[in-house]
Design goal:
Elements: H1 2-32, E1 34-41, E2 58-62, E3 76-79, E4 97-101, E5 114-121, E6 126-128, E7 136-138, E8 143-147, H2 157-160, E9 163-164, E10 168-177, E11 183-184
Antiparallel strand pairs: 1-2, 1-4, 2-10, 3-5, 3-10, 4-5, 5-8, 6-7, 8-9, 10-11
Amino acid sequence: MTQAQGFGRRYIKAFFKGFFVAVPVTVTFLDRVACVARVEGASMQPSLNPGGRQASDVVLLNHWSIRNYDVQRGDIVSLVVPGYHRSLFPLPWELESVIKLSHPSRSPRNPEQKIIKRVIALEGDIIKTIGYKKKYVKVPHGHIWVEGDHHGHSFDSNAFGPVSLGLLHARATHILWPPKRWQKLQPILPPERKPLQREQE
């Protein structure tokens, strides 16, 4: 009996040691390296959610790849938009693509949602806008210009202007679900959305 109690205590002690090591490691991994998120909405069609409401794409979001704010034109990124909260600015499903994270991620403005868009221009680029208050914008230092692929059906830089690099959350690198859509997401810049003038690279 004493042996069984000793075994039980060792088992419980080992379990809690493993638990208290595994939880912080897992949380750190999900917060700093990568996580999985479901994309909802149509603003990134046809790249994401081409089937509309029937099926949502699940993507891999790589936090590590943007740790030094190293993004390029054509990347699909998730980001926080300051002041944007769906309850304050409700958009129909057709106008927005948001991501639902597989783990809790807190933003001071909106703890549940971040948006996902394509990087169109980098700092120093001059871009012709689509409906923004200025026809041409030079992207300021430390900012990027992002747009949804479904023009006219996207809440993006054409509505809120250039986005600070500090608001980047992650880069979408792969579509993981549904299985028939599994693929690596390549940085593609639509020819009609190329910057008019690019900063020397």
